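Researcher: First entry.
Model:
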Amino acid sequence: MSDNASPGLPSYARLAASGELKVRAAEAHRRLAHCDLCPRNCGANRLEGEMGFCRAGALPRVASWNAHHGEEPPISGRSGSGTIFFSSCTGRCLFCQNYPISQLGNGQTITDDRLAAMMLDLQRMGCHNINLVTPTHYVPQILRAVERAAAKGLRIPLVYNTSGYDRVDTLELLDGVIDIYLPDAKYADDAVARELSGFDGYVEANRAALREMRHQVGSALLLDGQDIATRGMVIRHLVLPDGLSQTREVLAWIARELGTESFVSLMAQYFPAYKASEHPPLDRRISRAEYRDALHALEEYGLDNGWRQHYTPW
């Protein structure tokens, strides 16, 4: 586990200064020739213009970047989280609330240098962190950008905001680079994960990824004197209608395997977006009783750390 809690430079800046970050970025970049960054291992030669399942190329594509105030309180704080929303996705969620970005690919193709400049601009805006949203398919470009931004004074924490469909060997390249992991734990059933989100082997991949994230930054969430997160992990779980998210099984696994000290953000915000209206029971909001059952599961498994959304009906 990298020590990113020590005083002085953040560990990603130390890695950049030592040359280690450049080595990791080069290794990740080579993998684009036969892309295996995510668990699909589709093998597309992105350096030659091929696009795999995620439809991402050799350069990063960004849909938006700005101060965001809608994350968990220690992430957004008072000044906002510096979100960078990457286009495309390794999943195909029928209910994706960001589908114009993730599925339709809305955004602008930029250079790694431009990505680094965005990070520095967000820091100058006073954001508490750099929040990399849907980053898995752009890890090589992110590593290059962080190396360049660190050399120019980037110092705020880096957040890896992901579906949780990640490969351990890709995450290992981020050890000491990412300060805060913000992964989803979407499902406990592979058949449902494939049907609703197009993920192959989601459960095994997700659980291995969560273990690796915990190994890197721990289960707890460390806060500074202003109650802003500086290091750790928050696991998000979106409750779906009719038990499709297997909430009880997901929470039981987190408590058993990652520990009851884990921080969980239990979300009630589901609404029928994208193609959900064509796939009952995804065509409705969750009920108050369904969210109450999810809250009871949190209590039953002793997962007291984290956040619970206020249930809002139609």
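Researcher: Second entry.
Model:
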Amino acid sequence: MNNSIRYHFSDFTFENYRRLLRIARQKYVFCSFDDITVDNNILIWRHDVDYSMHAALNFAKIENEEGISSTYFVYLHSELYNLLESEITQLVNEILSLDHKLGIHFNCDFYNINNEEELEYYLNFEKYLLEHIFKHSIKVFSFHNPTPVILEFNKLRYAGLINTYGEFFQKEMTYCSDSNGYWRHRRLEDVLSKGNDNKLQVLTHPEWWHFQILSPKQRIYRCIDGRAKNNKDWYDKSLKEDGRENIDWDI
């Protein structure tokens, strides 16, 4: 079977994302992690932004147009964006201006965390930093690439923040994710269309979605190439604006 069919490449376009949201709205009540308003047909939709804040803004605009608010979990240790860069900061602020919420995408391995005390210490550190950068209250966090050991940190809250992998969300809610650019367990369209999951958490990563139909490798390579191009353009522009020579081999 062709991989484009086997892995549903055509699912991962922004146009189809809008369609999936509309299907979900017919079946479910959208809630946030800190505001579950009903007992049945609950849907919490979150985004772990691993690599592309530009793609995250595309999600945010579509959701805003569809009357939906979701939570964007930003990652201080991303290899492809820096939350302290002015452009990325502006993108996050634009996402927030569209009535969305901010969460922490947290990497235990970065700090070599071995116990709950260390987890709370570094969560408090990242919470303090992000709240001061974006002037936005943060109430929730998600683990980055959680291992079975990390998932043992399953209390509902740490450092006053709701844990998306807490026992309640693991045991009381079902789950559907697009990790690595494909449906690893269940196809989201099938899950939403059937509407059999009484309490559902959906995780989507913006970098795995695009305007065109692409393979997962193509989608992530576009993020990498786009990051490189932006850096080159910034360097060329900064030299020109400062009136400095941009010297290469040719005269």
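Model: Note on the second entry: The chain has one domain: 3-215.
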